[in-house]
Amino acid sequence: MTTTQNPPAAVAGEAHTTTKPTAPEKSRVRSDRAEAWRRRAPLMPALIFLIIVTQVPFLLTIWYSLRSRNLLRPEGEQFVGLSNYGDIFLDSTFRQAALNSVLITFGCVIVAMLLGLGLALLLDRKFFGRGIVRTLLITPFLIMPVAGALLWSISMFNPTYGLVNWLIGLVGISPVDWTSEYPMFSVIVALVWQWTPFMMLLLLAGLQSQARDALEAASVDGASAWQTFRYITLPHLRFYLELSVLLGAIYVVNTFDHIYLMTAGGPGTASANLPFYIYQRAFLGFDIGQSAAMGVVTVIATIALALLALRLIFKSINAKEQS
Amino acid sequence: MSLTRSRPPKDDAQRRGIAPEKKPKLTKAERKQMRRGGWLDAFSRQNLADTLLTGYLPIIVALIVIVLPLAWMVSSSFKPPSEIVTLNPTLLPQDPTAGNYSSVVDRVPLLTMFGNSIYVTVVGSSIKVLLAVTTAYALVFIKVPGRNFIFLGILVALMVPPEVSMLPNYLTITGLGGRDTLWGIILPGLGTAFGTFLLRQHFMALPKEMFEAAELDGAGHFRKLFQIAAPVSIPAIATVGLVTVVNEWNSFLWPLVITGSAEKMTLPVGLNLLQSVETQAGSYGILMAGAVIVIAPMLVIFAALQKYIVAGLTQGSVK
């Protein structure tokens, strides 16, 4: 795991290190330094630029989160410490948005993963027209999220002329105003539709990397299809299942387009998630300090999730390298 | 669940020649079946009902659920308003019309937006990929002090929700005079943590011997990168390129906040604008036409490059 090693030579002035190099290390490094810098100089601008565009905005967010700043009152800017953080935890809308984020993320990821697993198992066999079926099943993943959200909110969930209400009308259920009465459910349905193909592709890749001889051995030994699935396929897929949940969660937790276009966070703030609420506070409420604080909280929560994902990824990379 | 293998174990073993001694003589039909390949097994008589129930039926249901919304979108885009505002909708338009498409062009400057989207996607993605390649190379082959911390920082950036850096980016870009300009759309998104991560993992796996000969010749880093590392990494670079192009094309939130006038909007923002001017139920054919126009180019590209994309999704993470 490369990222946790101490750097060979941490030089003072490096923006990211807090480790102070010891004196002997410094002098040893200095002798080779001029030549090394000359050789690496041409590639440095790209590296520095990348650091700036990926890191500086985040540092700025932390800075803004410690200040009271509202674009409508430009003169009132001042350092307020952690009071923005106190305010947002007292804000019931923020807590609701955080809860919605969790519900949307897990609801979407788990349902999409189960459906994706089912589809991947179906597609992991030879049958007539498999190529075209697979292409068709992938399609929702290729749809621009804005267009997908529009498609669901308008032509599927429209209370009067939507297809869903027409279909349930066939079995005698009276029409439902989906995006107003069940906003979270509507958003999750649209997201599941969009994300199932991603899960399916990942799990299909996992299924197809199975060692065929293990499966053959199982069938020679007379294992039933369920036994084969339970004791050979599922343990093999474990890594892929974990990966699809984590990658899916990292993407879905940032969902903005669907909420903006389908429910606009409404009714009220019933379906606002964190990204949408941050957007609302920053660009409709112009409250820079608080929305920055919310952003920092979101990042910390996401990083906790991400570290889990990284450990998993590195574990597999290391396992591959060792074998 | 009998989904994993529909063939009975005996067939499978025979077909792969594992237990030929059990039944040395195959009938003509069986041999023919072997030659024709696996999927015909599913049509043997005892399997037919089983196959239909466990294989084709779920696939057909899944196809309907997944594809119907899309088919409905395309069909609606050709329907006149009278066929949309009806309580007895039909799958196919009875009186197909291209009127919705011309309405889209009337309502919003679609061609300009298309041009903006293409410009932002092409310029943004090119710079992004170039930066990702050079940065990944630097992180692997150049002993930059603290490079592991830089890499860790990039990984963290990969996980940071975009709406968090959006706020400082908005203030910075507005301060630089980039509001409502195309470069203002492109600039903050130029660092791709995903691409850098994937390419770094790829470069790490390259054999070091490849570079030794070049080093003896006195090749600098640039020659080593563009004449050795990059050419052997074309598939990985193509993957990063494709993912970048798709993200850039689909990007909505940042262009939404940084643009104000229709002439500078990209297609997703334009679609949002179209939705806000067309609010009547009868005009949803126009919105669907807009959606079709926006989706079509990506579908065409994907259809052509499918296998790279499928590989790319799993590469890097599952290598």
List the main descriptive attributes of the protein structure presented here:
heterodimer; A: 323 residues; mainly alpha; MetI-like fold; two-stranded antiparallel ribbon; 72% helix; disordered N terminus; B: 319 residues; 2 domains; 16 helices; 70% helix; MetI-like (chain B)
Rg value of chain B: 27 Å
Low-confidence stretches of chain A: 1-21
Q: Could you describe the largest sheet of chain B, including whether it forms a barrel?
A: none
- How many discrete domains of chain B? 2
**Count of alpha/pi helices of chain A:** 14
Known CATH architecture of the largest domain in chain B: Orthogonal Bundle
CATH topology of chain A: MetI-like fold
What is CATH's topology name of the largest domain in chain B?
Answer: MetI-like fold
- β-strand number of chain A: 2
Q: How helix-rich are the residues of chain B, as a percent range?
A: 55-70%
Organism (chain B): Nesterenkonia sandarakina
Membrane topology (chain B): Multi-pass membrane protein
Keywords (chain B): Cell membrane, Membrane, Transmembrane, Transmembrane helix, Transport
Protein name (chain B): Carbohydrate ABC transporter membrane protein 2 (CUT1 family)
Commentary on this structure:
The complex is a heterodimer of chains A (323) and B (319). Helices cover 72% and strands 3% of the residues of chain A. Chain A has 323 residues and is mainly alpha-helical. In chain A, helix 2 (44-65) crosses helix 14 (288-322), helix 4 crosses helix 13 and helix 6 (145-156) crosses helix 9 (183-208). The model of chain A is unreliable at 1-21 (pLDDT under 50). Chain B is mainly alpha-helical and 319 residues long. Chain B folds into two domains: 34-76; 100-314, MetI-like (MetI-like fold, Orthogonal Bundle), CATH 1.10.3720.10. Chains A and B meet through helix 1, helix 2, helix 4, helix 5 and helix 6 of A and helix 1, helix 3, helix 6, helix 7 and helix 8 of B.
Concise summary:
The complex is a heterodimer of chains A (323) and B (319). With 323 residues, chain A is mostly helical.
